[in-house]
Predict the structure.
Amino acid sequence: MPQPQPTPAPDDANALLGRKPFKRSKSHFADRITADGRYGWPVESGRYRLVVSRACPWASRAVVSRRLLGLEDALSLAIADPIQDHRSWRFTLDPGGRDPVLGIRYLSEAYNAREKDYPGGVSVPAVVDVASGQLVTNDYQQITLDLASEWTALHRPGAPDLYPEPLRAEIDEVMAGVYRDVNNGVYRAGFAAGQDEYDAACRDVFRRLDLLSERLADRRYLVGDSITEADIRLFTTLVRFDAVYHGHFKCNRNKLAEAPVLWSYARDLYQTPGFGDTVDFQHIKQHYYRVHSGINPTGIVPLGPDLGGWLTPHHREQLGGRPFGDGTPPGRVPPGEEVPASGRPGPWAGE
């Protein structure tokens, strides 16, 4: 069914993409939720709500981490509409257009509850204090690290150690390069305002992907012999690569599906419980192509690519490794959090 294109407000930042050099803003609200509550926000089951968009790679990190660690009962989940308006993330997927727990229509309301007339951008992931309705943190770099290391008392039995202390220095080093050149690099290329800016960013993306291919040629995971935070952060970019970054962001030296090692690695993770069952390709494509009006003013969403390849054998198990280390896979996706069939790999949309 044809869907109407959003009409950007005059101050809609999305309409200005590609008109000035891109620079990612730092998280303005960087409070941390810790076991000892030293920042004023102690870990407590049921106290906080994680607000995400399935379209956003930064938010998807938190969705994967929460599921792998079994925090579903301790940290409730709010899923925003992938289509934003000028007030940003909204809860139009919920009955009445309001989040059923927070009672708000827009995530910006939680930002304003924390800081009146907050002038900055409204981003996900965001953790909101349910009782007060205030935003606690939108620090996408720290949220998942804290879920792995500060929320341990609430982890499920058999939860994997996603940020093991003996490997943290190596994990941090790998993640720094992935963030600079891949996670953020695709945005630097996609939102570049000039040829030189784009050229430099696109070359950085593929230089780093080539290095990662070499690293993963004889090892199943980025660091150690099981899944860590580093794998989560790379996966959320790779899973979007052919669907949006290759065309929409012009990162088109080659597709992920044309890079044998990374394509096998990404499929291995996608087929691991906790990864692919959180990915909604429909949300991803609708958001990027319809919201980024500055670089796709028509709002047309492409039919491709064919997503069936995500379910094909990857043979990465031949490299050894244990996905969950000494732990176990997560259980079934909780009711209400399942990805609809429209967002999962299936017949090509053009058929």
